[in-house]
Amino acid sequence: MEQTLETLVENAMTIAEPWKKNGQVASYIPELSNADPKQLGISLMTKDGRLYSAGDSDYAFTIQSIVKCYFLLFALDKWGEDIVFSLVHMEPSGASFQSPAITPLPQIRPANPFINAGALVLCSLIASTYSLEEFVESLAQLISREDLPIDRAVYQSEYAHSQANRQSLNKLAELELLRADRETTLDFYIKSCAILMDTKDLARMAWAFKHHEAISPRHRLILESLMFTCGMYNGSGEYAVRVGIPSKSGVGGGLIALHDDYCFGLYAPALDPKGNSLAARKAMAFFSEELRLHVFDRTD
Ligand code: DON
């Protein structure tokens, strides 16, 4: 079995490799455009904690929107489901992650916790009571890391190019959905997005989301449902068909995916037009088929 999973990860590398050249690294945050589109890292962690990695699995990159999973879990843990979903809906938006996607029914609020506006609202809730250090420490503890560094250059670059998020914050403030001031919220959000991890950390984080006892079963169910329906933004439908397990992408090129038996962390910074790592998607489609991971796979 050991040999088989090692080979499988190597085979996923081979399958994903040619797709790296078809994507584009993110450039709306100028510092991210320095990423090397030739990089590809894959890590897989089994339920019993064995880790298999290949490629650039020791290279640390900014996790970007993947941190939104932990905004959600942290907010659910500290404030509970009713308060969290009084601030954001739980609906796929069908829109890009940068779209404000503030939907009117039943009340005006962001469509889900993973589009930027929804994440900003939850970030403001967290920042109203906890420091960034407390939030990051809690995430580090969950994945058994002593600390988690923040990439200052990416942080500064995003901070200087955050017009879209500033516009969303203005709208959210108008709607009285923010629980901390705009500047504090933006700073907390951008620093959290600039947390550095490699694919081994991502696989450990995916494993922790799936199996760690610190996460309540109800909160895990909420997280996984929203990752499944909204985790890949306006690419969530196609990804659900082709891969079919809860996953979350970030514009840095990272991706996590959760399954009972296998959890994944991947990195390939060249993105598809919807902001998801192209090679990571292809690797996940391969794993899904080979390991029969799709949640609706009922064939014998
Ligand atoms: O708000 C932003 O633009 C980024 N810091 C995070 C966006 C992101 O990763 C979207 N994911 N695909």
User: Looking at this structure, what is the CATH superfamily of the largest domain?
Assistant: DD-peptidase/beta-lactamase superfamily
Largest beta sheet: strand ordering: 2-1-9-8-7
Low-confidence region ranges: none
- Helix and strand sequence: HEEEHHEEHHHHHEHHHEEEH
Give the radius of gyration: 18 Å
Q: Report the CATH topology name of the largest domain.
A: Beta-lactamase
**Largest β sheet strand count, sense and barrel closure:** 5 strands, antiparallel
* CATH architecture grouping of the largest domain: 3-Layer(aba) Sandwich
Shape: globular
What small ligands are held by the chains?
6-diazenyl-5-OXO-L-norleucine
Distance between the termini: 21 Å
Give the total of beta strands: 9
Task: List the total number of helices.
Answer: 12
Instruction: State mean pLDDT (0 to 100 scale).
Output: 95
Approximately how much beta-strand content do the residues carry? 5-15%
How many distinct domains? 2
Give a description of the structure.
This protein is an alpha+beta fold. It is built from twelve helices and nine strands. Helix 1 runs antiparallel to helix 12. The radius of gyration is 18 Å and the shape is globular. The chain starts with a helix and ends in a 9-residue tail after the last helix.
